Protein backbone atom coordinates (compact mmCIF):
# COMPACT_ATOMS: atom_id res chain seq x y z
CA UNK A 1 0.00 0.00 0.00
CA UNK A 2 1.30 3.45 -0.85
CA UNK A 3 1.90 6.09 1.76
CA UNK A 4 -0.95 8.14 0.27
CA UNK A 5 -3.34 5.20 0.67
CA UNK A 6 -2.29 4.79 4.28
CA UNK A 7 -2.94 8.44 4.93
CA UNK A 8 -6.45 8.26 3.46
CA UNK A 9 -7.66 6.31 6.49
CA UNK A 10 -7.74 7.80 9.98
CA UNK A 11 -5.14 6.56 12.46
CA UNK A 12 -6.21 4.55 15.49
CA UNK A 13 -6.03 6.30 18.85
CA UNK A 14 -4.23 4.30 21.51
CA UNK A 15 -3.35 4.65 25.15
CA UNK A 16 -0.56 2.84 26.92
CA UNK A 17 2.49 2.97 29.17
CA UNK A 18 5.69 4.38 27.82
CA UNK A 19 9.26 4.87 28.92
CA UNK A 20 10.54 8.34 28.08
CA UNK A 21 14.14 7.64 29.04
CA UNK A 22 16.36 4.87 30.40
CA UNK A 23 15.35 5.38 34.05
CA UNK A 24 13.04 2.36 33.97
CA UNK A 25 9.97 4.43 34.80
CA UNK A 26 6.83 3.99 32.67
CA UNK A 27 4.10 6.60 32.53
CA UNK A 28 0.75 7.03 30.72
CA UNK A 29 1.08 7.77 27.02
CA UNK A 30 -1.46 8.76 24.36
CA UNK A 31 -0.42 7.94 20.82
CA UNK A 32 -1.77 6.81 17.46
CA UNK A 33 -1.33 3.60 15.54
CA UNK A 34 -1.54 3.34 11.80
CA UNK A 35 -4.96 2.99 10.18
CA UNK A 36 -6.30 -0.53 9.81
CA UNK A 37 -5.39 -1.37 6.20
CA UNK A 38 -6.83 -4.14 4.05
CA UNK A 39 -4.40 -6.76 5.38
CA UNK A 40 -4.60 -5.68 9.02
CA UNK A 41 -6.56 -6.57 12.09
CA UNK A 42 -7.15 -4.28 15.04
CA UNK A 43 -6.90 -6.03 18.39
CA UNK A 44 -8.28 -4.90 21.73
CA UNK A 45 -5.44 -6.00 24.00
CA UNK A 46 -6.52 -8.18 26.93
CA UNK A 47 -3.16 -9.44 28.25
CA UNK A 48 0.49 -8.65 27.67
CA UNK A 49 3.32 -10.55 29.29
CA UNK A 50 6.35 -8.92 30.89
CA UNK A 51 9.55 -10.25 29.30
CA UNK A 52 13.09 -9.50 30.37
CA UNK A 53 13.50 -8.10 26.86
CA UNK A 54 11.05 -5.35 27.82
CA UNK A 55 13.35 -4.32 30.64
CA UNK A 56 16.32 -4.25 28.27
CA UNK A 57 14.28 -2.10 25.88
CA UNK A 58 13.13 0.34 28.55
CA UNK A 59 16.62 0.70 30.00
CA UNK A 60 18.35 1.06 26.63
CA UNK A 61 20.41 -2.11 27.06
CA UNK A 62 20.15 -3.72 23.60
CA UNK A 63 19.56 -1.21 20.82
CA UNK A 64 19.65 2.48 20.97
CA UNK A 65 16.03 2.58 22.18
CA UNK A 66 13.73 5.02 20.41
CA UNK A 67 11.99 7.00 23.15
CA UNK A 68 9.20 7.25 23.97
CA UNK A 69 8.85 3.50 23.77
CA UNK A 70 5.88 1.29 24.62
CA UNK A 71 7.19 -2.17 25.55
CA UNK A 72 5.31 -5.44 25.24
CA UNK A 73 5.61 -8.27 22.74
CA UNK A 74 3.61 -11.06 24.38
CA UNK A 75 0.19 -9.85 23.37
CA UNK A 76 -3.21 -11.49 23.46
CA UNK A 77 -6.37 -9.66 22.50
CA UNK A 78 -9.74 -9.74 20.81
CA UNK A 79 -10.09 -8.83 17.16
CA UNK A 80 -12.34 -5.78 16.80
CA UNK A 81 -11.73 -4.92 13.14
CA UNK A 82 -10.57 -6.80 10.06
CA UNK A 83 -9.35 -5.45 6.72
CA UNK A 84 -11.08 -6.72 3.61
CA UNK A 85 -8.21 -9.04 2.65
CA UNK A 86 -8.03 -10.71 6.06
CA UNK A 87 -8.80 -14.45 5.90
CA UNK A 88 -7.45 -15.84 9.18
CA UNK A 89 -9.55 -13.83 11.64
CA UNK A 90 -13.10 -12.70 12.21
CA UNK A 91 -14.26 -10.00 14.61
CA UNK A 92 -14.47 -11.57 18.07
CA UNK A 93 -11.62 -14.04 17.55
CA UNK A 94 -8.69 -14.06 19.94
CA UNK A 95 -5.36 -13.14 18.36
CA UNK A 96 -1.80 -13.36 19.62
CA UNK A 97 1.04 -11.07 18.57
CA UNK A 98 4.68 -11.78 19.35
CA UNK A 99 7.98 -10.00 18.72
CA UNK A 100 7.65 -9.26 15.01
CA UNK A 101 5.12 -7.10 13.16
CA UNK A 102 6.79 -6.50 9.83
CA UNK A 103 9.21 -7.70 7.18
CA UNK A 104 9.73 -7.22 3.45
CA UNK A 105 7.50 -10.15 2.51
CA UNK A 106 9.46 -10.93 -0.62
CA UNK A 107 12.99 -12.06 0.26
CA UNK A 108 13.96 -15.76 0.42
CA UNK A 109 13.58 -15.82 4.20
CA UNK A 110 10.10 -14.28 4.11
CA UNK A 111 9.01 -16.73 1.42
CA UNK A 112 9.98 -19.59 3.72
CA UNK A 113 8.11 -18.13 6.73
CA UNK A 114 11.43 -17.17 8.30
CA UNK A 115 10.61 -13.48 8.64
CA UNK A 116 12.79 -13.27 11.73
CA UNK A 117 15.80 -13.50 9.40
CA UNK A 118 14.52 -10.84 7.00
CA UNK A 119 16.89 -7.86 6.79
CA UNK A 120 13.83 -5.59 7.06
CA UNK A 121 12.27 -7.38 10.02
CA UNK A 122 10.37 -4.98 12.27
CA UNK A 123 10.16 -5.47 16.02
CA UNK A 124 6.75 -5.05 17.62
CA UNK A 125 8.04 -2.31 19.92
CA UNK A 126 10.86 -0.58 18.04
CA UNK A 127 11.24 0.92 14.58
CA UNK A 128 8.92 2.22 11.89
CA UNK A 129 6.20 0.74 9.77
CA UNK A 130 6.24 1.08 5.99
CA UNK A 131 4.04 4.18 6.21
CA UNK A 132 6.43 5.90 8.59
CA UNK A 133 4.41 5.40 11.79
CA UNK A 134 6.26 4.16 14.85
CA UNK A 135 5.91 0.62 16.14
CA UNK A 136 4.63 0.59 19.71
CA UNK A 137 4.26 -2.53 21.84
CA UNK A 138 1.50 -4.16 23.79
CA UNK A 139 1.49 -2.27 27.10
CA UNK A 140 -1.48 -0.46 25.61
CA UNK A 141 -5.15 -0.81 24.86
CA UNK A 142 -5.03 -1.79 21.20
CA UNK A 143 -2.82 -2.83 18.33
CA UNK A 144 -3.07 -2.70 14.56
CA UNK A 145 -1.16 -5.53 12.97
CA UNK A 146 -0.97 -7.27 9.61
CA UNK A 147 -2.66 -10.65 9.98
CA UNK A 148 0.51 -12.38 8.78
CA UNK A 149 2.13 -11.49 12.11
CA UNK A 150 -0.75 -12.58 14.32
CA UNK A 151 -1.76 -16.07 15.33
CA UNK A 152 -5.27 -17.31 15.98
CA UNK A 153 -5.61 -18.42 19.60
CA UNK A 154 -7.96 -21.43 19.85
CA UNK A 155 -11.10 -21.27 21.97
CA UNK A 156 -10.66 -22.36 25.56
CA UNK A 157 -7.07 -21.23 26.04
CA UNK A 158 -6.28 -19.56 29.37
CA UNK A 159 -5.37 -16.20 27.92
CA UNK A 160 -3.20 -14.85 30.74
CA UNK A 161 -1.05 -17.98 30.47
CA UNK A 162 -1.03 -17.84 26.68
CA UNK A 163 0.50 -14.37 26.43
CA UNK A 164 4.06 -15.31 27.55
CA UNK A 165 4.22 -18.02 24.89
CA UNK A 166 4.08 -15.37 22.20
CA UNK A 167 7.72 -14.39 22.81
CA UNK A 168 9.65 -17.54 23.47
CA UNK A 169 7.12 -19.99 22.06
CA UNK A 170 7.28 -23.65 22.81
CA UNK A 171 7.90 -26.83 20.87
CA UNK A 172 6.59 -30.19 21.98
CA UNK A 173 8.21 -33.57 21.42
CA UNK A 174 6.22 -36.64 22.32
CA UNK A 175 8.24 -39.67 23.43
CA UNK A 176 6.57 -43.06 23.30
CA UNK A 177 7.47 -46.72 23.01
CA UNK A 178 4.74 -47.13 20.38
CA UNK A 179 5.53 -45.82 16.89
CA UNK A 180 1.82 -46.21 16.14
CA UNK A 181 1.11 -43.20 18.36
CA UNK A 182 3.03 -40.82 16.12
CA UNK A 183 0.06 -39.93 13.92
CA UNK A 184 -2.14 -39.10 16.90
CA UNK A 185 0.63 -37.11 18.61
CA UNK A 186 1.38 -34.98 15.57
CA UNK A 187 -2.08 -34.60 14.08
CA UNK A 188 -4.31 -34.43 17.15
CA UNK A 189 -2.03 -33.16 19.91
CA UNK A 190 -0.12 -30.88 17.56
CA UNK A 191 3.31 -32.13 18.63
CA UNK A 192 6.25 -30.79 16.64
CA UNK A 193 8.15 -34.07 16.67
CA UNK A 194 7.94 -37.65 17.91
CA UNK A 195 10.59 -39.93 19.40
CA UNK A 196 10.42 -43.69 19.72
CA UNK A 197 11.86 -44.44 23.14
CA UNK A 198 13.69 -47.61 22.09
CA UNK A 199 15.32 -46.06 19.04
CA UNK A 200 18.86 -45.39 20.30
CA UNK A 201 19.77 -43.17 17.41
CA UNK A 202 16.77 -40.89 18.00
CA UNK A 203 17.43 -40.74 21.72
CA UNK A 204 21.07 -39.75 21.27
CA UNK A 205 20.07 -37.02 18.84
CA UNK A 206 17.63 -35.64 21.45
CA UNK A 207 20.22 -35.36 24.22
CA UNK A 208 20.65 -31.86 25.56
CA UNK A 209 17.83 -30.45 23.45
CA UNK A 210 14.90 -30.20 25.86
CA UNK A 211 14.07 -27.52 28.41
CA UNK A 212 11.61 -29.61 30.38
CA UNK A 213 10.08 -33.07 30.50
CA UNK A 214 6.54 -33.98 31.56
CA UNK A 215 6.70 -37.66 32.47
CA UNK A 216 3.33 -39.44 32.43
CA UNK A 217 4.59 -43.05 32.58
CA UNK A 218 3.29 -44.59 35.81
CA UNK A 219 5.51 -47.70 35.94
CA UNK A 220 9.09 -47.53 37.34
CA UNK A 221 11.61 -46.44 34.70
CA UNK A 222 14.85 -44.46 34.49
CA UNK A 223 14.42 -40.70 34.09
CA UNK A 224 15.94 -39.18 30.95
CA UNK A 225 17.88 -36.30 32.49
CA UNK A 226 20.37 -36.50 29.61
CA UNK A 227 17.75 -34.98 27.34
CA UNK A 228 17.68 -31.74 29.28
CA UNK A 229 19.61 -28.77 27.99
CA UNK A 230 22.40 -27.54 30.25
CA UNK A 231 21.21 -23.93 30.35
ZN1 LIG B 1 10.42 -11.60 25.10
ZN1 LIG C 1 12.04 -10.36 3.86
Describe this structure in words.
With 231 residues, this protein is α+β, with helices and mostly antiparallel strands. It is built from seven helices and eleven strands. A hairpin with a 6-residue loop joins strand 1 (12-19) and strand 2 (26-33). InterPro entries: ADH-like_N, ADH_Zn_CS, CAD-like, GroES-like_sf, NAD(P)-bd_dom_sf. It comes from Prunus dulcis (Almond). This is Alcohol dehydrogenase-like N-terminal domain-containing protein.
CATH hierarchy: architecture of the largest domain: Alpha-Beta Complex
The largest sheet, given as strand count, sense and whether it forms a barrel, is: 5 strands, antiparallel
CATH superfamily of the largest domain: Medium-chain alcohol dehydrogenases, catalytic domain
Number of domains: 2
Helix/sheet category: alpha+beta
Neighbour order of strands in the largest sheet = 8-3-4-5-9
Q: CATH top level of the largest domain?
A: Alpha Beta
Helix content: 10-25%
What form results from the Cα inertia axes? Answer: globular
Q: Report strand %.
A: 25-35%
N-end to C-end Cα span: 44 Å
CATH fold annotation of the largest domain: Quinone Oxidoreductase, Chain A, domain 1
User: How many strands in all?
Assistant: 11
Average pLDDT rating: 89
Rg, Cα atoms, Å: 21 Å
Given as residue ranges, the uncertain stretches (5+ residues, pLDDT < 50) are none
Ligands:
zinc ion
Number of helices: 7
Order of helices and strands: HEEEHEEEHEEEHHEHEH
GO biological process, one term: lignin biosynthetic process
InterPro entries: ADH-like_N (IPR013154), ADH_Zn_CS (IPR002328), CAD-like (IPR047109), GroES-like_sf (IPR011032), NAD(P)-bd_dom_sf (IPR036291)
GO molecular function: oxidoreductase activity, acting on the CH-OH group of donors, NAD or NADP as acceptor; zinc ion binding
Keywords: Metal-binding, Oxidoreductase, Zinc
Amino acid sequence: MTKAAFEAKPPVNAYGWAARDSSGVLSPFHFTRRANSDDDITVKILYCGICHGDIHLVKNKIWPTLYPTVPGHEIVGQVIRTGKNVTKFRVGDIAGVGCIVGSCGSCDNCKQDLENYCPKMLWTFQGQHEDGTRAFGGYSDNMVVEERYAVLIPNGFALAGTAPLLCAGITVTVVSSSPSKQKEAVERLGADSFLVSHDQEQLEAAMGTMDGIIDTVSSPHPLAFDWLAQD
